[in-house]
Amino acid sequence: MIAVLGALLAACTSTPDFQTVALPRPAPAQLETPTQRENQRIVGSYGGVYNDPKLEAMVSETVDRLVRASEKPDLKYKVIILNSSAINAFALPNGQLYVTRGLIALADDRAELAAVLAHEMGHVIARHAQIREQQARQTAMLAAVANDVLKDPEVGALALAKSKLTLASFSRAQEFEADALGIGISSRAGFDPYGAVRFLSDMQRFAELKTPGGEADPRATDFLATHPATPERVQNAQANARQYGTPGTGERDRADFLGAIDGMVYGEDPSEGFVRGRRFLHPKLGFTFLAPPGFSLDNTAQAVLGVNDAGDEAMRFDVVQVPARQTLRDYLSSGWMENVDVKSIKNFNVNGFPAAVAHAAGKEWSYRLYAVRFGSDVYRFIFAAKKPSRATDQAFRESLNSFRRMTLQEAKNTKPLRIKIVTVGPTDTINTLAARMDVGDKKRERFLVLNGLQPGETLTPGSQVKIIVE
Questions:
Q1: Percent of the chain having pLDDT more than 70?
Q2: Helix (H) or strand (E) holding 182
Q3: Distance between CA atoms of 327 and 322, rounded to whole angstroms?
Q4: Quick one: DSSP state of residue 49?
Q5: What is the DSSP code (8-state) at residue 191?
Q6: DSSP letters of 247-284?
Q7: pTM beyond cutoff 0.90
Q8: Nearest to residue 243, comparing CAs of 200, 179, 169?
């Protein structure tokens, strides 16, 4: 599954006409400093700023507590909550901290959130960004020497490989150092030092839920991409936490944390559309479609990706800019994807919209490429099958035929998912509460991970838990 989705990404994103499905944003104004430009890039890449005064107050108060307990309490930090369902957090060298609402939603208490924020502060305190930049420059210089000066290609390749290994291991060492610094900071601030252990474990469990077969997508632009939750890292976090006490030491502030996130948007932002089971809806752009039977959809920043239960069929949906003067037939044969059978291109209509289809073949996968002109944009459906047949072609075509305008009533009634905090009643169980979750699949598993619960645990009446509702 990962291989074909990677192929679908590679087949499309290298072309200059690629856009995200989200509404177009104006080009950023010229900024004065590199830090301002980087801030603009981060905010733009992660859906903008998420504005929620109650949530902002809780996060800011958490940062203030951490700063006072840090090795450098004189450093100034500013935290921005990003409007993204991705699970990520990072910091700029000037102390600008970023955390996505997706990461906040996964955390089960303030101690877990504090562990992540303190980890990012650790990077700032240890000046890791500046050190990485110096290491990268040294590697680039060595690469130039290996390519232009060394006569023996094997020696040059070996030298370059060693330098990259050094850079990789140094980055790994930085992560461990930031973990140690962060756990110390959060513990001295009065938080449970085991928050990092719990969050790293839940983050890995959540990643496994997103990908069939339990393997995390290596392309995911989330915390795991640069902060791997390996068993070794969890063990190191446990060892660091033991230096500050036994489990139960320090505050978790779960009630205050849950109160702050009650009502927070969960999953996709309205401007990026919604996945509801097999259906994708985009109220602002005014269209909807249904994925083939057995498919699970994931609305990423680049495209809507889907895969079937067996992992032998996949799809990608995105939007591109195609000049009005260019026909869809000419677009499908313009070279944005390799091995297109030009003779297979046909024009037709989908619910009143001009469309065209083409076939393409790879080593292991067969592709059906559809382009639909909707207003001033062209939408692409790229379906892939390992074992193409008349049945798969029919399922792909039926999915394409489901592409239509949303009615005004549909657009009005489609709302984002939100976190709701509920009190466990005397008769409530994990299964009954999970059944109330407005998520497409694996409701029980998602409920457990979202609430930091293990499969064998039971609920305590009177306690509070998170569920996802529309």
A1: 79
A2: helix 153-188
A3: 9
A4: B
A5: B
A6: TT-SB--HHHHHHHHTT-EESS-GGG-EEETTEEEETT
A7: no
A8: 179
* Strand positions, DSSP E, 363-403: 366-374, 377-385
The percent of the chain in helix, strand and coil, each rounded to the nearest 5, is 45, 20, 35
Task: Identify the residue whose tokens are 């958490």.
Answer: 62
> Looking at the domain that runs over 417-469, which CATH code has it been given?
3.10.350
Q: Give me the helices (H) in 254-406, please.
A: 254-261, 328-332, 390-401
**Residue 346: how many other CB atoms lie within 10 Å:** 12
Q: Which two tokens stand for residue 62?
A: 């958490």
Select from 1, 4, 6, 9 the least CA-distant residue to 303.
9
pLDDT at position 198 is 94
Helix 195-210 vs helix 231-242: crossing angle, to nearest 10:
160
Asked if residue 271 lies in contact with residue 22, where contact means CB atoms within 8 angstroms, the answer is yes
* 394-414 pLDDT per residue, tens: 999 999 999 999 998 888 888
379 pLDDT higher than 90: yes
Domain boundaries, the chain: 31-252, 274-413, 417-469
- Length reported for the chain: 470
Fold exhibited by the domain 274-413 = Protein Transport Mog1p; Chain A (3.40.1000)
* Digit-coded pLDDT (tens) for 27-40: 455 546 777 888 88
d(CA 320, CA 314): 20
Pairing of strands 304-308, 313-320: antiparallel
pLDDT > 90: what percent of the chain?
Answer: 49
Other C-beta atoms closer than 10 Å to the C-beta of 184 total 20
Amino acid at 344: S
Secondary structure class of 90 (helix, strand, coil)? strand
DSSP-derived 3-state class of residue 69: helix
Q: Are strands 78-82 and 96-100 parallel, antiparallel or unpaired?
A: parallel
Using a 10 angstrom Cβ sphere, with 0-12 exposed, 13-18 middle and 19 or more buried, the burial of residue 459 is middle
CA 212/CA 355 separation, integer angstroms: 32
| Residue 466 falls in which region: left (phi positive, over 0), alpha (psi -120 to 50) or beta | beta
- Token output for 450: 């979202």
**How far is 168 from 180, CA to CA, in rounded Å?**
19
Q: Which two tokens stand for residue 302?
A: 């680049």
86-110 pLDDT tens trace: 888 888 888 889 999 999 999 999 9
Q: How far apart are CA 328 and CA 370, in angstroms?
A: 9
Residue 302: closest CA among 119, 29, 59, 46: 46
Single-letter amino acid, residue 296: S
